[in-house]
Design brief:
heterodimer, A: 506 residues, two-stranded antiparallel sheet, 2 strands, 75% helix, B: two-stranded antiparallel sheet, membrane (chain B), quinone binding (chain B), transmembrane (chain B), NADH-quinone oxidoreductase subunit N (chain B), quinone (chain B)
Chain lengths: 506, 465
């Protein structure tokens, strides 16, 4: 079942590439159908999941000489992310029913990218994880370079590739360090987690953690490795941005929870303060820079840095074993996992909305827009809801996530959590001022009739069309459902995060 | 004496193939010289096929030639690499007056590499050395221009010097052990005067390190590879290296380990990988970049030689050699497929114009870095693992640091490939067969990596002497 879920998109991609004669319309519908079916498959697997431990395990020898196996499986850490991935990809596909040129190749690329993302989240072998990690970089590079807009698209794509690829090499060095120190030698994540091979090895554990952390921090991204993110987002097509922010960023944070913390518990505990500091810096810096942006899309991109900062703060707090009870630490991990899912849904929606903005007016500049509340009520409603969800208003998933993050972190790092809390205020300011600028004010249509030109074409911008509404609404409704009824999600995440918190504390 | 000519069938096929190629080339008009190339390709394919089909581990001709897992691996690997080289060289050499000569020289160099790899006797080793070296002088100078002349002369001077030193070493070892066969060396050397043995071994290793292109005998590599044609460069940096590294491995297993030879080889490995990497960082010409990259790769490969005899060292060396050979030939095939682009900056916009070539280059170069899932990753990792288990932790750390550094210069080549080209790039869509060679090599590097389990099954076994 799980390999099917992972590889069906790739097979569909190969099929689409082979079917040269296919009409564009058919391609878009096939893409949508496969993506939605994937989401359905993930939902079915969610419903039929085992009560605890890994479900849907596949474990076949791959490279016996290296102790590397093709090992996949889903537990409470990976299942929510796999489900979120399928939802974000389905939303991107639905959105793309009316967007994107050369749809056959674009669809193939997105489907292949979906395979790499699902494969990464379900991988239980470091080499399998790494291969999917690298392939996702290549896929996203192709999306930005091939379908990006703006003169700098190729350059931004290259910057993204270089940063994350160099980061991945550091990650690989870390993996090899884990492998060489394990006995018996293995790349298997479950076995490595059980062994925690570098515990009690002092410097070596710190160095391996450093290598792994650099690789994951570039991907997440955290300050100071975040500089690839804004240009990549600005130039990526809307669906690409949604996937990049919604799914690919989670690879970094997921790596911390799945690899760095349980496999290197001693080193993680020793350097937990570093994670807290980096998390707080990312949260504050991301929010402050977002506040200064004039482009709506760049602003959303920087809030991603801010939101990933909270995740790192929580994971660092979970490593501060002295001075906190185990309950608080597992709440912090649960909050971090919930934040990954929540951020994936909300940011994907925000980026799709930014894509609509660009599609209608060819610009992301907030100064070029005003009065959209009157001109495009559906767009305005969706943007307002997504913005409020992103800034953590109760009722949406962001609140559940951030509430748990701060509850779990205050005990161990009151100062860090207190500082990061300022980030929430800043984000609120960011989104409110953005909403104020683009949704309120005189309508552009009114500007056109008044003759106050200067912005070229001042027709009334078209409101969200059917597919756009469906894509954004699906993401926001899911976020709302999690916000109102967090039980089903937390039931899955909580046992796994208790496990992680216990593994770190051992 | 176990004289079985048929046990040497792969070598005989290469030899007869070389003669047949020469003869057919002599009697064919210039525009039909491709037929001679076909004969050469058939000989290579036949040789590899015979080696692949039947392997019976034994030593022949009085234990002077060992047919074991290492020899068999090289018997498949060297002709395969040469076959790809013939494919990639075709656009450059087709229609040339000396087209047949290229084929014959490449065949003989391959034969020499196989002799080097299989020799279990210092005299056979010396013969193999000459056979693997002399044709390369001709191959390096094949282009007959200023660059080729420099390439050939540099290679010749280094080769002649290293050859003389090597023969001197052979003589000293013969004097100390009372024999030249490796089993005699293994039993005779421990009792022999230490100074004599040390000088002798250094002498023999000098020849092999020259062939492999290791420091401090690496100076010929960049100039020769730059001056020679892309095809000749690919042969020079692949085929003899493969033979010489296996020969070095064999030699290190028979000399007394307590004389500190592992330290010597480890030091050579460390210096070689570091020098190659640092020099490669500054290169702006793809051939020179590849030349220095091959030097650094030899450094990593020598790590396996330093722990020769370790359980995992031989499979690691053979897998790494195979993966390296494919990736390296693939990169040279890209150079051959883009004759109009002479500097790294000329590769701007390649990805848009020729996506297949660009994709092959990405796979081969990232393969040379050692990125999963390419086969080089497996080879490199197992070599690191063997060295780590052998107690060379510092060497592994140095190699890991070097690997990270190496990414910088491979990316210096890849970045322009994917950058937008401001103006129409130089023409040069010619070279379909070179493009094919690049794609085949890249696909092989990937597939071998994905089927890594089978690869390790194929190279399990021990050396004979």
């Amino acid at each position: 079942m799980l390999p099917l879920l992972v590889f069906v998109p790739a097979l569909a991609a190969v099929g689409l590439l082979a079917a040269r004669g296919l009409r564009d319309r058919a391609v878009r519908w096939i893409w949508t159908a496969v993506s939605v079916a994937e989401a359905g498959g993930a939902a079915a697997m969610w419903a039929a999941r085992p009560a605890s431990g890994f479900g849907y395990e596949v474990d076949v020898p791959w490279i016996p000489g290296l102790g590397s196996r093709f090992h996949l499986g889903l537990d409470g850490l990976s299942l929510p992310l796999v489900a979120m991935t399928t939802v974000v990809f389905a939303a991107s596909a639905v959105y793309s029913l009316r967007h994107g040129d050369r749809p056959r190749r674009l669809a193939a690329l997105f489907l292949a990218l979906e395979t790499t993302c699902l494969g990464l989240f379900s991988a239980l072998d470091l080499i399998v994880f790494f291969v999917f990690f690298d392939l996702s970089i290549v896929g996203m590079y192709a999306v930005v370079a091939g379908w990006g807009h703006g003169a700098q698209a190729a350059r931004s794509a290259l910057k993204f590739f270089l940063y994350t690829f160099v980061g991945s090499l550091a990650l690989l060095v870390g993996f090899i360090g884990l492998y060489l120190s394990s006995a018996p030698r293995t790349f298997d994540m479950v076995a490595l987690t059980a062994q925690a091979p570098l515990s009690g090895r002092g410097v070596a554990g710190g160095l391996v953690l450093l290598a792994v952390t650099i690789g994951l921090a570039v991907k997440t991204p955290t300050v100071p490795f975040h500089t690839w993110l804004p240009p990549a987002h600005t130039d990526a097509p809307a669906a690409g941005s949604a996937v990049l922010a919604g799914v690919l960023l989670k690879m970094g944070t997921y790596g911390f929870v799945r690899i760095a913390m349980p496999m290197l518990p001693e080193a993680w505990r020793r350097y937990a303060m570093v994670a807290v500091v980096v998390g707080v810096l990312s949260a504050l810096y991301g929010a402050l820079v977002a506040l200064a942006q004039t482009s709506f899309k760049r602003m959303v991109a920087y809030t991603s840095v801010n939101h990933m900062g909270y995740v790192l703060l929580a994971l660092g707090a979970a490593g501060m074993v002295g001075g906190s009870d185990s309950q608080a630490r597992s709440v912090a991990v649960t909050g971090a996992m919930t934040q990954m899912v929540s951020h994936g849904l909300i940011t994907a929606a925000l980026f799709l909305l930014a894509g609509v903005l660009y599609d209608r007016g060819g610009t992301y500049r907030m100064a070029d827009w005003s009065g959209l509340a009157g001109d495009a009520p559906r767009f305005a409603t969706a943007t307002a809801l997504a913005a409020f969800a992103s800034l953590g208003i109760p009722g949406f998933s962001g609140f559940i996530a951030e509430f748990q993050i701060f509850t779990g972190s205050f005990g161990s790092t009151p100062i860090g959590a207190g500082l990061a809390l300022l980030g929430i205020l800043l984000t609120a300011g960011v989104f409110l001022s953005a909403l104020h600028r683009i949704l309120l004010g005189p309508s552009r249509g009114a500007l056109a009739t008044a003759g106050a030109s200067g912005h070229g074409d001042l027709r009334r911008p078209g409101d969200l069309n059917g597919p756009e509404t469906a894509a954004v609404a699906a993401l926001l409704v899911l976020s709302l459902l999690i916000g109102l009824f967090p039980g089903p999600l937390l039931d899955v995440i909580e046992p796994a995060s208790r496990g992680v918190a216990a593994l770190v504390a051992r | 004496m176990n004289e079985k000519p048929l046990a040497l069938l792969p070598e005989l096929i290469l030899l007869l193939g070389a003669v047949a190629t020469l003869l057919s080339g002599s009697f064919l008009p210039r525009r039909r010289q491709g037929v001679a190339g076909l004969v050469a390709a058939l000989a290579l394919a036949g040789s590899a096929a015979v080696a692949l089909a039947g392997r019976s581990d034994q030593t022949v001709y009085g234990h002077s030639f060992a047919i074991d897992v290492a020899t068999s691996a090289i018997r498949v690997l060297a002709p395969t690499a040469t076959l790809l080289v013939l494919l990639l060289a075709t656009p450059r050499i087709a229609g040339n007056r000396r087209q047949t000569e290229f084929y014959v020289l490449a065949l003989l160099a391959t034969l020499g590499a196989q002799m080097l790899a299989g020799s279990s006797d210092l005299l056979v080793l010396a013969v193999g050395y000459l056979l693997a070296t002399v044709p390369l002088y001709g191959l390096a100078g094949w282009g007959r221009d200023a660059g080729a002349a420099e390439a050939a002369l540099k290679l010749y001077l280094f080769g002649a010097l290293a050859g003389v030193v090597m023969l001197g070493g052979v003589g000293l070892l013969y004097a100390s052990a009372g024999g030249t066969r490796y089993d005699e060396l293994a039993s005779g050397l421990p009792a022999a005067p230490r100074g004599l043995v040390v000088v002798g071994v250094v002498g023999v290793l000098t020849g092999l390190l020259f062939k492999a292109g290791a420091a401090p005998l690496h100076f010929w590599v960049p100039d020769t590879v730059h001056g020679a044609t892309a095809g000749a460069g690919a042969v020079l940096t692949t085929v003899p290296k493969v033979g010489a590294l296996v020969a070095a491995y064999r030699l290190v297993t028979v000399i007394p380990a307590d004389d500190g030879w592992p330290v010597f080889v480890a030091a050579v490995a460390a210096v070689t990988m570091t020098l190659g990497n640092l020099a490669a960082l500054a290169q702006t010409v793809p051939q020179r970049l590849l030349a220095y990259s091959t030097i650094s790769q030899v450094g990593y490969l020598l790590m396996a030689v330093a722990v020769a005899g370790h359980r995992d060292a031989l499979p690691a060396l053979l897998v790494y050699l195979a993966a390296y050979a494919l990736a390296n030939v693939g990169a040279f095939a890209v150079v051959a497929a883009t004759p109009g682009r002479r500097r790294l900056s000329d590769y701007r916009g390649l990805a848009r114009r020729r996506p297949a070539v660009a994709a092959a280059l990405v796979v081969c170069l990232l393969g040379l870095v050692g990125t999963p899932p390419t086969a080089v990753f497996l080879g490199k990792l197992t070599v690191f693992e063997a060295a780590w288990d052998g107690g060379w932790g510092w060497l592994v750390v140095l190699a890991a640091v070097n690997t990270v550094v190496s990414l910088a210069y491979y990316l210096r080549w890849l970045v322009p490939v994917f950058a937008a080209s401001p103006d129409p790039s130089p023409a040069g869509s010619a070279g379909r067969s070179a493009e094919l060679a690049a794609v085949v090599a890249a696909a092989a590097v990937l597939l071998a990596g994905l089927a890594g389990g089978a690869l390790y099954d194929a190279v399990g076994g021990t050396l004979l002497r």
